[in-house]
């Protein structure tokens, strides 16, 4: 039986996603030798889909990176405001300064393209700061 256009399109889609010839053969019911021929025949179409999908992944990463930068900058702003509102004789100022330094460092790394775990988790208006020995929770705002 001659291959259908649908089978060929499905092959192109699956091959662009990185499926093996064996897996594609089992899924669409076309012999492996036929798929090997199609690989050469549809090389440009497969490459186009691979490129389009990789561009979409890169764009998604860029958007995620931007969101991380915005979140880190927002956390840094909250810490700075909390520091400004604190009585400098209180002990928790040390923790706020630690968090400020960590957030500034993380923001700088995000701006230059490297990704780093800051050890700071934001949940509504609460910041938790983790270090080797302790966990600090600070309510901001």
- Number of E-state strands: 3
Number of domains: 2
Uncertain regions spanning at least 5 consecutive residues: 114-135
* Strands side by side in the biggest sheet: 1-2-3
Bulk shape: rod-shaped
Task: Please tell me the overall pLDDT.
Answer: 77
The portion of residues assigned to helices is 55-70%
What structural class should be given to the helix and strand makeup? Answer: mainly alpha
Count of alpha and pi helical runs: 5
Distance between the termini: 71 Å
What value does the Rg take, in angstroms?
Answer: 26 Å
Largest sheet: 3 strands, antiparallel
Proportion of residues in β-strands: 5-15%
**SSE series:** HHHHHEEE
Question: What descriptive keywords fit this protein?
Answer:
single chain; 141 residues; mainly alpha; 5 helices; 66% helix; rod-shaped
Outline of the structure:
The protein has helices at residues 5-16, 21-28, 32-41, 43-85, 93-112, and strands at residues 120-123, 126-130, 135-139. By secondary structure, the chain is mainly α.
What would your notes on this structure say?
This protein has about 140 residues and is mainly α. It has two domains: about 35 residues; about 90 residues. About 65% of the residues lie in helices and about 10% in strands. It is rod-shaped, with a radius of gyration of 26 Å.
Write the layout of secondary structure elements.
Layout: H1 5-16, H2 21-28, H3 32-41, H4 43-85, H5 93-112, E1 120-123, E2 126-130, E3 135-139
Antiparallel strand pairs: 1-2, 2-3
